[in-house]
Amino acid sequence: MSSDPILSIRGLRKSYASGTEALKSVDLDIRRGEIFALLGPNGAGKTTLINIVCGIVTPTAGEVLIDGRNWQRHYREARKRIGLVPQELTMDVFEPLISTVSFSRELFGRAPDKAKVERILRDLSLWDKRKEILKELSGGMKRRVMIAKALAHEPDILFLDEPTAGVDVELRRDMWALVRRLRDNGTTIILTTHYIEEAEEMADRVGVITNGELILVEAKDELMKKLGRKILHLQLTEPLQSVPPELAEWNPQLSENGNILTYEFDAKADRTGIPSLLTAMRDAGLGFKDLDTKQSSLEDIFVSLVHEKRSAA
């Protein structure tokens, strides 16, 4: 994966006449050949950002560079380099599947190429259904057709806006495998998702957007290392009614049945507080039968980041 950005977003803003700021001066570089996951709650600005880059929505300010070239001045070339799988299933439902995919290829100025269209349909397990009318396909198959349409003109950059929303777990995993294959073949992929495990499973880097503001961009592994906290579970020998005052400084949480004490700590800190907590428990006459630690997930990190941003506002 090259460190050169294939896509550079600079000072991108979108305001509406109502005064709503959908995007607040977003700066972002996407590296060639990476999978970048954009996370954010509903209304955070994810789809607005994608639609501006894809030329569907006009920004209030800012610019987008594709390989250093402005996407508005070189519009036709930019659109040829970008593929979009939108959230909504939009297609001519009375067309045979193969016709709509072939048309998408030619729409972006690519010469007809039956072999390439066949390869895309085979990769997406759609070849056997190529003559079927779109309205007769299941929701999951329609989602695959949307991806096939976006890939038909062989874009360098592929945007997937909530690509697995509303599909079953098996199809979601198939799509993850497909996205990895696309990346291995050199396609740069930007996906928005509500499924945190999707970002955790696939992304090289993660961006978090909330209220139109990009609040963090980080390599996924670094993010989880830096922000991931660990949780210690202590299974008590005897249940407690409440946390004893002797343990108050560690602020442990007690489970509803009183059998488990939970202590959250920073795994990177010089002093985790665990030895002193265990000593205080022993001095208070509290025994435990078992203990384990759990690394916080990307979801825990995401929720805490958005909460911190809202609190600061």
Could you report the average pLDDT, rounded to the nearest whole number? 87
Q: What string, H for helix and E for strand, traces the elements in order? A: EEEHEEHEHHHEHEHEEHEEEHEH
Helix content: 25-40%
CATH architecture label of the largest domain: 3-Layer(aba) Sandwich
Into how many domains do the coordinates divide?
Answer: 2
Describe this structure in words.
This protein has 313 residues and is α/β, with parallel strands linked by helices. It has 2 domains: 221 residues, P-loop containing nucleotide triphosphate hydrolases (Rossmann fold, 3-Layer(aba) Sandwich); 67 residues, Alpha-Beta Plaits, CATH 3.30.70. 34% of the residues lie in helices and 27% in strands. It is built from 10 helices and 14 strands. It has a 6-stranded mixed beta sheet, sandwiched between helices. Helix 6 links the parallel strand 7 and strand 8. Helix 3 runs parallel beside helix 5. Pfam families: ABC_tran. One of its GO terms (molecular function) is ATP binding. It comes from Sphingomonas anseongensis. This is ABC transporter ATP-binding protein. InterPro entries: AAA+_ATPase, ABC_transporter-like_ATP-bd, ABC_transporter-like_CS, ABC_transporter_ATP-binding, P-loop_NTPase.
